[in-house]
Design brief:
Blueprint (H helix, E strand, L loop, with lengths): L1 E7 L5 H14 E13 L4 H4 L6 H20 L3 E7 L2 H12 L3 E5 L5 H6 L2 H8 L3 E5 L1
Parallel strand pairs: 1-2, 1-4, 2-3, 4-5
Helix pairs in contact: 4-6
Length: 136
C-alpha cells in the first residue's frame, strides 16, 4: 500500500481522471495522502497579449473548484493542486515535492505525433523516481 498517491487529471478527459481517483483510494494505505493535480499549460507571451486580462487566473480557479468537487464526491480526504507549466515536468516536480510513492496517470490512444514526441504518460514513466500506474 502507498502512503502518498499523486493523480494528475486532464480536464479534457475527466471521466478517466475520476476513475483514477477511485483507484487512488484503493491503492492508498489507511490514511494515505492523495493529491489531485491539474497542470494548466503556460500561455506564451505572444499569445497572452490578445487574451482577456485574468483569463489564466480564472481558468485556474475554475479547475480548482472542479477538482475539489471530485475530491468531495470521492468521500476521501484529498489535496487539490493546480499549477501552470509543462505537464510532465510539473507532474514530476509535484511528485518529488510531495514524496509521492505512486503516480496514477491516464493514457490515451497514441496518435502519430506521440510516436515522435512521446505522450505525457510515457515521459512520466521514463523519468519518475517512484512507481507509476498507467491506466488505459
Amino acid at each position: 500500500m502507498y502512503k502518498t498517491v499523486l493523480v494528475p487529471i486532464d480536464m479534457a478527459h475527466l471521466a478517466e481522471g475520476k476513475a483514477n481517483v477511485t483507484l487512488a483510494a484503493s491503492y492508498g494505505a489507511q490514511g494515505a495522502k492523495v493529491i489531485l493535480l491539474n497542470v494548466v499549460e503556460d500561455i506564451p507571451n505572444w499569445a497572452a497579449i490578445d487574451l482577456p486580462a485574468g483569463l489564466l487566473e480564472k481558468s485556474v480557479e475554475s479547475i480548482r473548484a472542479q477538482l475539489q468537487e471530485i475530491a468531495k464526491a470521492s468521500g476521501c480526504k484529498m489535496d487539490v493542486d493546480v499549477r501552470t507549466g509543462h505537464s510532465y515536468n510539473t507532474i514530476l516536480e509535484v511528485a518529488e515535492e510531495s514524496k509521492a510513492d505512486l503516480i496514477i496517470i491516464a493514457s490515451h490512444r497514441p496518435g502519430l505525433q506521440d510516436y515522435f514526441l512521446g505522450s505525457t504518460a510515457a515521459k512520466v514513466v521514463r523519468h519518475a523516481n517512484c512507481s507509476v500506474l498507467v491506466v488505459r
